[in-house]
Amino acid sequence: MPEEISQPKRPKGAAVQLDELFAPWNRTDAPGLVVAVAKGGSVLYRRGFGMASLESPVANTTRTRMRIGSTSKHFTALLALLLADEGKLDLDVPIRTYIPELTGPGGDPSIRLLLQHRGGSRCYLDLQFLCHGMTPPPVGTGLRTQVRQKTRNFAPGEAMIYNNGGYHLTSIAIERIDGTPFEAQLKQRLFDPLGMYDTASIRSDYVITPGGATLHVSSPDGGWRRGLFPTEEIRGEGAIVSTVDDILCWMAHLRSREKFGSPSVWAALTELPIYPGGATGKYALGLMIDTYRGVRTVRHAGGVIGGSSEMLTVPEHALDVVILVNGAPGADPMKLAEQVVDILLAPQLKDAAPNLQVQEYGPWLGDWWSAKTGMVYTLVDDAGALKLSMCNLPTSMSRPLSLDHLQDGRIVVPSCRGCRALLQR
Known about the structure:
Elements: H1 14-22, E1 33-39, E2 42-49, E3 51-53, E4 58-59, E5 66-67, H2 73-85, H3 111-115, H4 124-132, H5 141-147, H6 164-178, H7 182-191, E6 200-201, E7 216-218, E8 224-226, E9 240-242, H8 244-256, H9 263-269, E10 288-292, E11 295-304, E12 307-314, E13 319-325, H10 333-344, E14 366-369, E15 376-382, E16 385-390, E17 401-402, E18 404-405, E19 410-412, E20 423-424
Antiparallel strand pairs: 1-2, 1-13, 3-4, 5-9, 6-9, 7-8, 10-11, 11-12, 12-13, 14-15, 15-16, 16-17, 18-19, 19-20
């Protein structure tokens, strides 16, 4: 018999690889997600997976509207910068300049520090969850909670702790300065000029949103419950509802900057802070500027009750990725967005940094409390890799940090090699 000649396998196309990546959520018995990808302004991939509502039932499509959570924050920051550019707002005076009832320490930080999460005040949402749990308090509680504060976590500018309250106060300041509802200003000045007609800032999950997906939270009995954020006054900290097409349009404008905003406005949006010790932060004004496998990324994730999102752009390659999730089981939009980058930019990426294997550090897994900082740190098993999580935040809000083992036995976050060791073996 003639010798059989094996044929070389043809590489899979990007669309096939993306279909395989999102295949676990291509089902009709669970909530899902919507994803869209563009390169150089041309859409490469857009598809809905899973159900927008298990109750109706209705499937997710690319027209499904979903909450984007904290991805909203840079819209708030940009609106503040536009007002500052017009001379209506000063980002570097105390917030009590615009909200005079903040007579305590909560009135000291500037809007810029609040937008960088460096104001030092305690977050009204954190306090609300501690005091009210999942019971919605009366409208106006957010401001009243911050007015009543007598102490703070740290002096303004001294450090950084993620704080939704600063964006809530900025929203109120913007509204008072212009005399127009904050939500209307977003629509008029940011959304409408770009044709983002499916995008709006909606304060409450209790409001019926046409075309909106239901947010889903799994229940112990294997079923599903509605995801409802326990407040009716979410604003610039995370109230935007949008579609993947609108966010793709927005990301293209983040790179072109052609419709509105001066060069100084756009430069300020992505300018990174310098901390008192001289270190450069990665959180600008509502956007995180970082690198992934050697390429620069501009991104921000969002987490709500029953949903999550990720908006990621690689400016140098004009690659834009948006993923909106309404409860898809096991879906981490931040990790999925990076996997999309892996597929589409493979030749341009550096090798991924090696991870510490969790089996070497099994006894260390769990929660650790620092008497010096008062923070809770958690060593977690992330798909077999040892990583660091802070404050027990869910992955929809904060990805675990990779760790590195130095020759002297210390274990540190790679970007903080000069910092005190996390572990000493």
